[in-house]
Design goal:
- The structure is a homodimer of 322-residue chains.
- The first copy, chain A, is an alpha/beta fold and 322 residues long.
- The first copy, chain A, is 46% helix and 15% strand.
- The first copy, chain A, contains 13 helices and 12 strands.
- In chain A, strand 3, helix 7 and strand 4 form a beta-alpha-beta unit.
- In chain A, helix 10 crosses helix 11.
- At the A-B interface, helix 4, helix 5, strand 2, helix 6 and helix 11 of A face helix 4, helix 5, strand 2, helix 6 and helix 11 of B.
- Chain A binds a DNA duplex (16 and 16 nucleotides) through helix 2 and helix 4.
Chain lengths: 322, 322
DNA sequence: TTGAAAGCGCTAACAG
DNA sequence: CTGTTAGCGCTTTCAA
């Protein structure tokens, strides 16, 4: 890296202000009371010299970094940027920084990411696990080194979590559609190794115990959603409502139904990403800000090991379920 | 935060292995040669005790953090997650971590983010500035403290950058459409304080010097794209091709044109996000991986102050320009 | 090749 | 309220 001027140290501020290092430290951090004009002098010197506390030195001493690690399964999944945003906002309110790590949908990468965060000595880790089972080992291992809370996706109920109820929105969707005359439901699922997705699918299955069950699996992509719709409509042409495990699938479904001349079929997505609003796709909004706030306040409390929070989603009805 | 077991230090490894601290350090980092069986002993002890180098201690000593800061203008803009992903991959290949900071489209937040990164002593900063002019001050200020390179968006040619040419794709788009018989072009722009967007718009304007110029401004959202299309089509019903400054706008345009019964109008977006592929929207793919690799290799070289790299985009033709 | 010791910048314990 | 001093964990002179 290129050469950069050496930083001003607290020692230089002390010399400049004619105070001791300790006093300057106290004046700047406010950790203990200092005389008013002394404080003034310290602050003025610091400002004039352009002093900024070196967080490395501080962290070495305090054994805290004021940094949170956030592990997300896949930043390319449009839901997670909004979670990242929410966590950053909530963290900033607590004067915390966030180290973001993307697991790229790979538990191996996820494990490496966790280790890297721990090596960077983050004060706590928020993780949305990439895989229902394969993420377990790395999480257990990490918990020995750092406070950790599952956020949004939860793969182990015995470990701290902050989640959103994923069943209720599916129930609301179905009853809303039934009230409007829809009778023949289908569900396009993502891999059931995705915790939230598994719950959405289960909720749908439970609602269909008395009626024909129409579920088809897909990957997390619009293309896959199109294929799923083709399969559904050819097997069960009577379908009049398709519930999708996420927005990308919903977009694909919408498009393919139009192609098939079946645009009258109701479609819903999940996660309420930009794309849903853009296309008038009914979707489910997760309370990302509240999740973030709750998760951060959890890792900040001493008894965070007891954290089990469940929040509620909101169904956003749009034209696609007109 | 919850209580966590104290970490194993290098001192304990030294005691356990019967070696000196210095030797253990050398054996583990390979910074200097050590005797073969000595190395063996050190590594074995370290492994058995579960020792992991404390990066805080190391950083304080070495004055390096092996961490890069990446400032993006808006993580909610679907282009940036892909840039983040690319930078993380490229960084991982160099054993670097990435601290991501979202400017939330606000130069004030951006400035705070830069300071925070510098306070965290990142070794270098990659930034995609949020604003053509308002981002300047913070960047100039930061350059005094840390090597910095503009990535993708460049607002100051006199400072290091790694960018993608934004004009050529617009030229290609127009000539492709002309070759297929389109004659009446329009452009939906984003605020021209977005560096890349400004360049895209300028390219379009230059191509239209001999023909009627039809440009309308919009915000970065699908809803805004719809409104823009309504305005365009009412002012110039003869329009048969609409080029949009990004994919979100393109989606809105596509939808509104369908609503207006003008689905025959060609539409293109920009950035080639998931949404473009999902909807068959012609778009422009920026070389994010190459940008990331080039930016990182730039900040790693001593003469990075001289970095001026321009890469090429690829136009991805899809049904929307059928 | 190995070890002893200094010291990165900071905060906190201890004196005064 | 202020100053002196130790020491966080590590790497790297400097000596042997």
């Amino acid at each position: 890296m290129a050469g950069v001027p050496r930083r001003v140290t607290i020692r230089e501020v002390a010399v400049d202000s004619g105070l001791s290092i300790a006093t300057v430290s106290r004046a700047l951090t406010g950790s203990r009371p200092v005389g008013p004009e002394i404080a003034q002098r310290a602050q003025e010197s610091a400002a004039r010299l352009g002093y900024r506390t070196d967080s490395i030195g501080r962290s070495l001493r305090t054994q805290r970094t004021n940094t949170l690690g956030l592990v997300i399964p896949d930043i390319a999944n449009p839901f997670f940027p909004s979670l990242v945003q929410a966590v950053e906002r909530a963290a900033r309110d607590q004067n915390l920084s966030v180290l973001i790590a993307d697991a790229a949908n790979d538990p191996g990468v996820e494990q490496a990411a966790l280790r890297s965060l721990i090596d960077h000595r983050v004060d706590a880790v928020l993780i949305s696990p990439s895989h229902l089972t394969a993420s377990r080992a790395a999480i257990t291992e990490s918990m020995a080194a750092v406070p950790l809370v599952q956020i949004d996706r939860v793969i182990d109920n015995s470990l701290p979590y902050v989640r959103a109820n994923q069943s209720r929105p599916v129930q609301q969707l179905v009853s809303h559609l039934r009230a409007r005359g829809r009778r023949h439901f289908a569900f396009i699922a993502q891999p059931d190794t995705i915790a939230t997705s598994f719950e959405r699918e289960s909720a749908f299955r439970e609602l269909m115990t008395d009626v024909p069950l129409r579920v088809v699996s897909a990957e997390t992509s619009a293309g896959s959603g199109r294929g799923a719709v083709r399969e559904l409509m050819s097997r069960w042409p009577e379908i009049d409502a398709v519930i999708c495990a996420n927005d990308l699938l919903g977009v694909g479904a919408l498009r393919e139904l139009r192609t098939l001349g079946r645009a009258e079929v109701a479609v819903s997505g999940y996660d309420d990403t930009l794309i849903a609003e853009a296309l008038g796709l009914t979707s489910v909004r997760q309370p990302v800000d509240e999740l973030a706030v709750a998760a951060i306040s959890a890792v900040l409390t001493p008894d965070m090991a007891a954290t089990r929070r469940e929040l509620e989603c909101a169904v956003i009805f749009r034209e696609s379920t007109g």
